[in-house]
Amino acid sequence: MDAVLTRVRLRVAPGATRAGVVGRHGDAWKVRVTPPAEGGRANDAVVRLLADTFALPRTSVTLVSGQTGRDKIVEVAGVEPKEIERRLSSAAGKERRA
To answer: pLDDT tens across 53-94, in order?
Structure first.
């Protein structure tokens, strides 16, 4: 059986005071990370944030597009699209309550 690979569009805000999933940004999810966009540090933080949000190892989250821009596409292994939407919505809700 093939592993499920789901792509997720992101709008990333690097250099934020606090990291987290903010909510929807058009057809993408907006996320904030604390490291600045220097030397790939923000990209690494995005992968870490999503892996933690989905309770997956970091190797299950891969940046496939947007290495140098704010708009990115990541591929998540092992999680169905509906479950990704549910977990991101839940994480965004926690961010709003914090």
So the answer is: 999 999 999 999 999 999 999 999 999 999 999 999 999 987
Taking the CA atoms of the chain, what radius of gyration do you get in angstroms? 12
User: What is the value of pTM for the model shown?
Assistant: 0.91
Where does 5-97 sit in CATH, by number?
A: 3.30.1200.10
Q: What is the mean pLDDT of the chain?
A: 93
Return the domain boundaries, the chain.
Answer: 5-97
DSSP 22-84: EEEETTEEEEE-SS-SSTTHHHHHHHHHHHHHHT--GGGEEEEE-TTSSEEEEEEES--HHHH
| pLDDT score at 1 | 44
- Cα 68 to Cα 81: distance, rounded to the nearest angstrom: 25
Cα 88 to Cα 2, 21, 39, 45: the distances in Å are: 24, 7, 26, 16
